[in-house]
Every structure is written in structure tokens, then in C-alpha cells.
Amino acid sequence: MKPRIQRHEKIITLVREQHYMSVEQLAQALDVTPQTIRRDINILSDENVLRRYHGGATMGDILESELQQGKRNSCQIEKNAIARHIAEHIPDNASLFLSIGTTMEAVAAALVKKRKNLRIITNNLYVASVASARSDYTVIITSGVVRPVDGGVTGVATVDFINQFKVDYAIMSTHGVEGDGSLLDYDYKEVSVMQAMMSNARVRFLGVDHSKFHSNALVRLGNITEFDKVFTARPPEAPMQKILQAAGVEWLIPADLPQ
Question: Which fold would CATH assign to domain 74-252?
Fold first, then answer.
């Protein structure tokens, strides 16, 4: 295999694992010059594998598509159990925001089975498709730009749309939860939408499977203490439990999760 092809494969592997790598980090990891890395990033960006971003590279559409497919298969038993547990805490006749993510798709499916007469506002096309199967639901899709990789709708228009409403519940997930409670995600446009949902909801629920804890990402959404309830599949570590307890945030684990 040619050295350049080998180098490209290593770059792709590193970016897939870390989701963002600077030119300097890649140059150090591969023991080449920054100029070489910049040329490699340009080539891989033209192929839509990577995306140039702030002096480095993040995942392009091809890698994001692979990641999203992996998410659909990852921790699905946990996500389904978390979703059922969230649905138990949503009353009939409620209004709610549902954000982007495979956990939210599971929540939509659980709500359809359990709850009546919901009004759902979402920027997730998959959620809208699932929820619209119920004739007693009112399902509203936000305006904005659709991401082809996951059916998410984001952008300034999406934030403006969300700000027109005040709902009972905001239900969302995130990519990562750091040890200090910081919530992290990749897309600042998606984060802006979720922040608007949080600001315009009376009650906030966060659903995260165990893989989200200590997972890294670029953009700060907020803090886990800004939610009323946290739904997860395993008990948080002791330091996180202290953070939640100090803030008066309840964390809940589904009883029907297979051991």
C-alpha cells in the first residue's frame, strides 16, 4: 500500500475516533509536517470523507453517515428502555419538544404506544414520521435546513421557530457528558436549537445511555444540572451522583432493562 494511502487511512481512523483533530495533532501523531497534513485534509475533504474545520478536520458526510448508522445499532436495548421510562413520565394531553437523535426516535415510538393527545414539536424528521401515525397527535416540524445524514433540521430559522412556542416538556439527548456535568455535542447549529428548546419548556428531561458519559465533543450545550430529570440505563458514577443531588436533579433507571 502506498504511504499516502496508509496515511489517509490513519487520519480517517483518528478523526473517526476523536471526531475532531487539529493539523498539529495529526502531524505529530503521523510524524509528518503540517503542510503534508493540510494537503491530505484537502484531498479527503474533496472526497467528502472529512471536513476542514478551524485549523483541523472533522467528519465529512461519509463518516457521519457511517457514525449515524452505528448509532442506530449501538446500545439500542438501553435506548429503548430509557425511552419507555421517559414515556411513563409524560402525561396524556401534554405538549413537548423532541430533539435530534436515535434516542429521541425511540422516545417517539414509546410515546405512540403509551400516550394520547400529544402535541409534539420536533426538528427530527424520523420522530415526526413515527408520531404522525397517531391521529390524535398534533405533530409540528420546525423550519430550517434538513441534514441528509440523520433527518435533523437545524439553523437560525429553526431557533426562531422554536422560540414561538412554550411547551410542557423538552426531551433531548446529547453526545457527551463530561465529569463536571458539561453536556457536549458536535454541531453548534444543533446545540443552538436544543438550547432554545430548553429555554421554552417548563420541564426538561435528558435521556442518555451509558456510552455518553465521558464522551467528548466540540460544542457545549449546557450542564446536566439544568435538567429536571436524567434518564439513564446505569447508575451514574459517585461524583456525578453528587453533582445531581446537589442540584436537586433526579436520575432514574428503567426497571425493565435486561441485566
Answer: Rossmann fold (3.40.50)
